[in-house]
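Dear Dr. H.,

I hope your travels went smoothly. While you were away I took the liberty of generating a structure for the chain from your last submission, since the lab meeting agenda had it listed for discussion. I wanted you to have the full record in hand beforehand rather than looking at slides cold. The sequence, exactly as received, is reproduced here:
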Amino acid sequence: MGCFLNLLWLLLGGIAVAIEYAASSLLLMMTIVGIPFGMQTLKLAALALWPFGKEVRATGPTTGCLQVLMNVLWLVLGGLAICATHLLLGLLLCITIVGIPFGRQHFKLAGLALSPFGKEVVEA
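The corresponding predicted structure, in token form, is as follows:
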């Protein structure tokens, strides 16, 4: 069932979202300062490509103030807009019963888009 839902996800816009994340990741990685942010955007791209059967987990205890600082910078420089977009799409998809599984995936992406540093995507 997960494979079928992943294929539907790709056909109904998941591939476009993943390509947008990958392209922005490449643009971010063109500067040395943007490399950590580009790596987090790649994490979002991988989850946006094949979201069913994966979950987001914390990597463990906070590694220090650098992780918190990077999450704050991420939030201010675009993470809040990405999160809001996924929340809006998730709410719109949850209007219908058929769209609920896809809306839940957008909520998962919204959580990762809010603070990606210190989190990892693993198989469920």
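Two observations you may find useful: The chain has a mean pLDDT of 89. DSSP finds four helices and two strands in the chain.

With kind regards,
E. W.
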